[in-house]
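Here is the promised in-class demo. Please do not try to memorize the tokens; focus on the logic of going from shape to residues.
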């Protein structure tokens, strides 16, 4: 666990270096490019070979896609409580995102012409669900629920197989409840390539959604343009800002929860104006870590991906938060400061306000999607919304009278930009 003091020389240089530790190295970039190139050229053959190499599973072309029988039978392996939890989470996500459904509109502009916007669900989307050591059942809910709400016609889901070649039952159950029938046991860079380029067994999609590890993150960047992207969600991040009212046991538990994702590239931060709290949190981490199942992968994140920062006041904490632009931001501060801080911190994927609003609520159940920007991309990207599953067209309709009102403007711009044909396109309508 590393520690920095805001008042020390070179603070932002050291902070930048910590943030950059997640940057994709050339070796990863080159390997991703090679895999994508082979998937593009060889399709299913490349996917099958790479699945054997990376996932240690031998697949055949005819079993890349999960059968309807597998989808239907998966729910039988889950308990009633697990089944109920999945349905409850889906309902919370629906209720939150229903409020953001876009509306078509029409109105008159200053020329008297009719203008407006029309929204269309994207025809075919591909959704990546991490399913290796940590099968993210919740990600099924945080993505496919929005796609269904937007009435997307075709939803194709991709998730890596387990060693036995099967898919996690929780993932399949959540997909079945949401009515998703097209599911492929394809993971990693191969899945992104299949979505972007298509293969003999997999039709290409129009837009890719979902989080992933550093390789998936890089693959999404490389296929952008061939296909649309939701955002760039990579390994998990959590920043906690705490004052003298904060509880060390709560903070330690929340830091450990995000470190548990297990890729080794997670970044977790604690910013506080009370130095004593840092030692208290360190102690609590040692106590709570002892009985966790995933302690080994957590230890790697604690060693290389954890940063404790001492500040003098909230203004300094705000500056740091806006620089890092964390995926998740928790505010463990006096209630009086919750709203003021959320107004000042403008770069964060999701904000959790108060001691009783842990990030795990956003991971599983609260309603907002947990597919969020990471790696400082929250400076210019937002978390996944239902509108991301739509595309928009503007509409324009003028009468001859409206055209007359706009003619002088068009002619002026035609002269300014030396585009004679543009001006004639208007004038010819008045002959």
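The designed amino acids, position by position:
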């Amino acid at each position: 666990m590393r520690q920095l003091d805001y008042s020390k020389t070179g603070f932002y240089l050291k902070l930048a270096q910590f943030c950059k530790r997640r940057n994709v190295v050339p070796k990863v970039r080159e390997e991703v490019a090679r895999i994508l190139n082979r998937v593009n050229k060889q399709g299913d053959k490349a996917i099958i070979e790479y699945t054997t190499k990376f996932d240690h599973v031998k697949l055949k072309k005819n079993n890349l896609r999960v059968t309807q029988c597998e989808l239907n039978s998966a729910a039988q392996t889950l308990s009633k409580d697990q089944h109920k939890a999945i349905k409850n989470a889906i309902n919370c996500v629906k209720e939150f995102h229903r409020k953001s459904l876009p509306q078509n509109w029409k109105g008159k502009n200053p020329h008297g012409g009719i203008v407006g916007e029309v929204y269309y669900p994207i025809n075919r989307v591909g959704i990546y669900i991490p399913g290796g050591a940590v099968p993210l059942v919740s990600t099924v809910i945080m993505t496919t629920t929005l796609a269904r709400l937007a009435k997307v016609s075709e939803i194709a889901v991709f998730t890596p197989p387990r060693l036995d070649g099967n898919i996690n039952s929780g993932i399949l159950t959540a997909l079945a409840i949401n009515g998703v029938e097209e599911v492929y046991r394809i993971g990693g860079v191969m899945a992104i390539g299949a979505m972007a380029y298509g293969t003999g067994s997999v039709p290409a999609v129009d837009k890719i959604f979902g989080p992933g590890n550093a390789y998936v993150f890089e693959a999404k960047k490389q296929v952008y343009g061939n296909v649309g992207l939701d955002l760039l969600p990579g390994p998990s991040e959590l920043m906690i800002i705490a004052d003298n009212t904060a509880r060390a046991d709560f903070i330690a538990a929340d830091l450990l929860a995000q470190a548990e994702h297990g890729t080794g590239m997670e970044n977790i931060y604690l910013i506080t104006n009370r130095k004593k709290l840092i030692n208290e949190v360190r102690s609590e981490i040692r106590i709570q870590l002892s009985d966790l199942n995933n302690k080994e992968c957590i230890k790697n994140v604690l060693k290389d991906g954890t940063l404790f920062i001492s500040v003098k006041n909230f203004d300094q904490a705000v500056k740091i938060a806006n620089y890092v632009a964390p995926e998740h931001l928790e505010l463990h501060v006096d209630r009086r400061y919750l709203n003021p801080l959320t107004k000042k911190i403008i770069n964060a994927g999701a904000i959790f306000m108060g001691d009783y609003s842990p990030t795990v609520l956003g991971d599983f159940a609260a309603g907002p999607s947990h597919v969020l920007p990471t790696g400082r991309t929250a400076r210019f990207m937002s978390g996944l919304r239902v509108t991301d599953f739509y595309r928009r067209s503007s509409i324009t309709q003028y009468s001859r009278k409206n055209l007359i009102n706009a003619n002088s403007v068009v002619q002026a711009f035609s002269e300014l930009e030396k585009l004679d044909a543009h001006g004639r396109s208007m004038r010819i309508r008045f002959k």
